Request: fold
Amino acid sequence: MAVYAVGDLQGCLEPLQRLLERLQFDAASDKLWLVGDLVNRGPQSLETLRFVRDLGDAAICVLGNHDLHLLAVAASGKPLKPRDTLRPVIEAPDAGELLDWLRNRPLLHHDTALGWTMVHAGLPPQWDLELALACAAEVETELRGAHSERLFASMYGDKPALWSPELTGMERLRYTLNALTRMRYIDAEGTLDFACKTLPEQAPPELTPWFRIDNRRSRDQRVVFGHWSTLGLIREADLLALDTGCLWGGRLTAARLDAADTPVVSVACPQAKRPNK
Reply:
């Protein structure tokens, strides 16, 4: 059995199929970890959802910010954003089944035996794994509950941007969602910054990538994540960044998590979107 983690798809199914063929992926015995953002902006969000859903237990996927946006739009009927490519999903005859499946994906996945933790964007420095799992579970309970529309109606926004154990209610849930699915940079006080998306060497000096915070409490964990296409591939002993810009004409990358040296395989991707277009 092999365990592969793959970066952000965002509706780019054809590169995923080529990548799995190159890996000789066998859904009967292998596992596929997907770091979230299955959908949006790419050309085949509907087909991607169906493909991953049909992999059954062979696929483990955490929710990304674009996946949550799809769920919120479908639940509220709010207008799609100009760059969204989600209408085929919402209007599909099997939309209800697909959205229910998506809503039941976790925000964080940890495999004790394998020694890897998967999340879409990252883990805030104030959290250890135990707290991260607990906060993720709080959101998942709300997301899967009978009144999930309350979460979808209130999840947008950048505040609060600083963790406190005193946070309650929607503020606590929104912080968790933002940290796990949108985070990139953090300032010296531990506050999340959502404006900067550049490479670390181009960022303002007061900002640090979340995974470079010296006192990060999850440093004893091996974390695999996506979300940050300008960052590209990072492969370190305790860190694996896998968003290599498939949507933007980069590559789709897979790393084998159960191999000692975490070998990486990637395929070229046709450009589906141009930045700020």
